[in-house]
């Protein structure tokens, strides 16, 4: 398992070292709303505030931490007030408005570097997809809600409308691009399918120099299973 948000205190440490080296730069680090419920988030914010580290915290508040809705995570007014509570300049922006996000991040970066201090940006959005391939988000939220955000509040459609209204894009250009990307994708899939697959052993050999007993046991079990059910194992993957 990858522990969420352990990178935040590390980002502050790196930002502090940039400051000590008088570099004309800042660190940008990201978290979801779920990550802000971790202790590391609070340690990082406080540490950055007192050291005046040039770091931009970008929090994508999309309403859900896997299946946990924000109302079950905190009772504060989102994330932006938490930054302010730690004495950090904090900006809330409509995360589904590309141009607004661009200008907020631009301003945050300028501020972090020129004023040598942390800035937090909370981008309000919604996660229309599942959290991961093992997640089925229709189990914990209404399908109507997902469809509403996907169709009515879609940031890509919104940006596209703006680009089209400026005469930089059109329906024809869109379908031309889609067709050409589709062709490229189909070609890439064909190439990938013809490429020799990595051997089974690679599943177990790419992390440890010396394989621990539990991995050796897993490999043994897998090989035995394949031996017993060869019809269920793809013939083009070397054993
Ligand atoms: C320290 C730790 N606790 C729990 C988990 C399990 N976990 C993985 S992702 C996640 C939620 C993350 O929420 P968010 O950052 O809002 O992501 P989103 O659901 O928007 O994709 C949790 C609890 C983890 N990876 N690490």
From TrEMBL:
The keyword Ion transport does not apply. Pfam families: E1_dh. It comes from the Eukaryota. The keyword Iron-sulfur does not apply. One of its GO terms (biological process) is branched-chain amino acid catabolic process. Keywords: Oxidoreductase. Residues 3-199 form the Dehydrogenase E1 component domain. One of its GO terms (molecular function) is oxidoreductase activity, acting on the aldehyde or oxo group of donors, disulfide as acceptor. This is 2-OXOISOVALERATE DEHYDROGENASE SUBUNIT ALPHA MITOCHONDRIAL. It comes from Salix purpurea (Purple osier willow).
């Amino acid at each position: 398992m990858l522990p969420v948000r352990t990178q935040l205190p590390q980002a502050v440490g790196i930002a502090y070292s940039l400051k000590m080296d008088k570099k004309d730069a800042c660190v940008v680090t990201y978290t979801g709303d779920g990550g802000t419920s971790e202790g590391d988030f609070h340690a990082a914010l406080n540490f950055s505030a007192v050291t005046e580290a040039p770091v931009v915290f970008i929090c994508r508040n999309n309403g859900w931490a896997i299946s946990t809705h924000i109302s079950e995570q905190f009772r504060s007014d989102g994330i932006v007030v938490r930054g302010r509570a730690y004495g950090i300049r904090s900006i809330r922006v409509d995360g589904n408005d590309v141009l607004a996000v661009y200008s907020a991040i631009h301003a945050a970066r300028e501020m972090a570097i020129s004023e040598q201090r942390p800035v937090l940006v909370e981008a309000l959005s919604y996660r229309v997809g599942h959290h991961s391939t093992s997640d089925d988000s229709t189990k914990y939220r209404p399908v109507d809600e997902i469809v509403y955000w996907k169709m009515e509040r879609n940031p890509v459609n919104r940006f596209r409308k703006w680009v089209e209204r400026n005469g930089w894009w059109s329906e024809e250009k869109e379908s031309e691009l889609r067709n050409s990307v589709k062709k490229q994708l189909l070609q890439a899939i064909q190439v990938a399918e013809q490429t020799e697959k990595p051997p089974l052993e690679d599943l177990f050999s790419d992390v440890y120099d010396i394989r621990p007993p539990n991995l050796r046991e897993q490999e043994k079990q897998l090989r035995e299973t394949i031996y017993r059910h060869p019809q269920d194992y793809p013939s083009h993957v070397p054993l």
